[in-house]
Amino acid sequence: ITLSLPERLRQEFPILSETPYGKPLVYLDNAATTQKPNAVIDAVAHYYRHQNSNVHRGAHYLGDLATAALENARDSVARFIGADREEVIWTRGTTESINLVAHGLRSQLRPGDEVLISSLEHHANIVPWQQACAATGATLKVIPLQADASLDLTDLDQLINANTRVLAVTWASNALGVVTPLHTLIARARDVGALVVVDAAQAISHFQINVRELDCDFMAFSGHKMFGPTGIGVLYGRKEHLNALPPYQTGGEMIETVTFETATWNQLPYKFEAGTPHIAGAIGLGAAVEWLARQDRSAFLAHENDLRDYLTERARAFPGLRIIGDTADKVATLSFLLDGAHPNDVGTLLDQQGVAVRTGHHCTMPLMNLLGIPGTVRASLAPYNSRDDVDALFTALEKAARFL
Ligand code: PMP
Q1: 271 CB under 6 A from ligand 1?
Q2: What pLDDT does residue 58 have?
Q3: Where would one find the signal peptide in this protein (predicted)?
Q4: Which has the closest alpha carbon to 289: 135, 115, 88, 14?
Q5: Is 170 in the pocket of ligand 1 (CB under 6 A)?
Q6: Atom 14 of ligand 1 has which residue's CA nearest to it?
C-alpha cells in the first residue's frame, strides 16, 4: 500500500500518537509550535549523549565535535534560506531576532524618520519598534486593514515615502493566517531606500524562502515553528547591515579583545552571539532544516492548501460560525468565532475531545481591537494533518455547540 503524505509523515512524529484524556490527539496548534520529527529529537539526544561540550574553545575532543556540529547547523540554515553563513545569527527566536535589529537601528533613527509595520503584526513585531521610536523620536506608522482583513495598499505611496527608514512586516499573520503582499511592499521599500525586516515566524514552515530572491535586509524566524526545538531561532541579516549594527548583548564570545577600559568586537556572526549559545537547540534546528530539505516542499504546500480549502468550506457550512479573515491568500490557518460563545469556552470543549487549538488574542491585541473582537479560536495546520483531523475538529465543534 502507498501511504498518503500525512500518513507517512505521522510515522516520523512520535507525539502524534499521544492520547489526551484517552482520545486520539488532533493537533491543530501548529502556528503556536509545530511538533518534532524523530530526526530532530534524535539529533538533540545524540548531541547530549555523544558531543556535549562548550564550543569555540578548541580545548579538547568533545569541544571540537560540539563546535563542528554547531557550525554545521549554521551552514545548513544558511543553505536553507540562501544566505552566507556569517549572515546567520543564532538567537532565542523571532522575538529576540526582531529586538536585536530594532535595538541596533536606534543608532540610525532620527526624529522625522518613519518605521512602517502592518495591522497584522504579532506583538513581537510591534513593541520593539514602539520602543525604538520612543527612544529616537521616529514615528511608527501602520498599514491599515481592508474589510476582509487583508492589508490595504490603496495609499502605498504615502505609507512608504521618502521618510520611511524601516519596513518591518510579517509574511503571514499568526492570528488569521492571512498572507501579506510582501513582494509589492518590498519593491516599494526599495524605491525609497528603506530597510526591509521580514517576520517569517509563520511563513518559514510553509514557503520555500530565499532571502536574496526576496530581497529583504533582515529576516527573523523561530526553530520551534519549523519542526525544530524551542529556545533557538535565527536572525538573517545582509552582511553590510549587520556590520553597521552595534552589538545587542555584550560579554564572552562576541569580543575580539578586551581591556578594563574598552573592547573590540568579534567578526560576524559572533559579534551578535554573546555567551554560550543554545548548542543543542541549534543542532536540532540544523536537523530540522536538513529534514525539511529532504521533503517535497511543493507537495507539502499543495497538501496544506488543499486542507485550508477543505477547512474553509466546512467552516462556511457550520451554523453560527464566523470566519475571521476570510481572504483568498492564506496559509492553512483558520480563525473563527461561534455565535454567542466565548472563544476560550469553545477551546476548552474542543480540548476535552482531544482537539488542540489556540484561543485568545494570539499576541495581536491591536489587530483584535481593529476587528472589534476579544479573540478567536484558531486551528492551524501542518503537513502531518489530514482531512480526518479537519473532520474531527468539526465533529468536536458540533458537540461543543450543543453545550454552549
Ligand atoms: N511573529 C509571529 C508572526 C509569530 O507567529 C510569533 C510566534 N507566535 C512570533 C513573532 C514570536 O515568535 P517567538 O515566540 O518564537 O519568539
Answers
A1: no
A2: 77
A3: none
A4: 88
A5: yes
A6: 95
